[in-house]
Amino acid sequence: MLNINQLVLASNNQGKLAEFQQLFDNVNLKIDIIPQGQLNIDDAVEDGLSFVENALIKARHASQISGLPAIADDSGLCVPILGGQPGIYSARFAKDDPVFSDKFSQNKDDANNQKLLNDLQKFRNKQPIIGQFVCVLALVRHANDPLPIIAQSIWQGEILPEILGENGFGYDPLFWLPNLQKSSAQLTKVEKNQISHRGQALQKLLAHLKNTDC
């Protein structure tokens, strides 16, 4: 088992903090998760070109400043028919689009969803439009760790032509799960955490931590 008792979470998202801590506790890993904001650590500049690069940038940044091991995730929605967009830019997809930039300043999630729907209009036909939620988790023991622990998962669904559901955040209201006949935004938090991209990636990471001595 990884011989540490504290991990800095390279995020100030309280929902992520609670989710990470609960999953670590469930597998009896006695590790306290500390949000980087509690240590006055600002967000890193995410200038990587992939989910893996950005997750590592955030984890190394938090570890460098705190002097502690750190964990970070980078996640987003990839739509193959759009060449993988919005991808690593999922959180700011509509920010620089003149049609949606004003709306983005008021409600980021709504603006991003509306831009995605707009970009997909010309591809709408009888065939479903595939979407993939991606999550990459990176854990570093120290800022210059040459062998970071990486866990990745992909959650596949379809992109709806209109929003459906009131739970979740981001693109959840547009992410349709055919096997459940629900959108991600219609799932409870417990249901989503069991099957989501982040939940799956975290389970892989936890399994690795339980079986490593380094």
The structural class is: alpha/beta
Give, in spatial order, the strands making up the sheet with the most strands: 2-1-3-4-5-6-7
Helix content: 25-40%
Largest sheet properties: 7 strands, mixed
Shape: globular
End-to-end span in angstroms?
8 Å
**Beta strands, count:** 7
From the alpha-carbon coordinates, what is the Rg to the nearest angstrom? 18 Å
Overall pLDDT metric: 90
Report the β-strand fraction as a percent range.
Answer: 15-25%
Order of helices and strands: EHEHEHHEEEEHH
Low-pLDDT segments, ≥5 res: none
Number of helices: 6
How would the blueprint of this fold be written?
Layout: E1 6-9, H1 14-26, E2 32-35, H2 51-66, E3 70-78, H3 101-106, H4 108-120, E4 130-140, E5 149-159, E6 175-177, E7 182-183, H5 189-195, H6 197-210
Parallel strand pairs: 1-2, 1-3
Antiparallel strand pairs: 3-4, 4-5, 5-6, 6-7
Helix pairs in contact: 5-6
Structure, briefly:
The chain contains 6 helices and 7 strands; from the N terminus they run E-H-E-H-E-H-H-E-E-E-E-H-H.
Question: How does this structure look, described?
Answer:
32% of the residues lie in helices and 21% in strands. The protein is of the alpha/beta class. It has a 7-stranded mixed beta sheet with strand order 2-1-3-4-5-6-7. Strand 6 and strand 7 (182-183) form a beta hairpin.
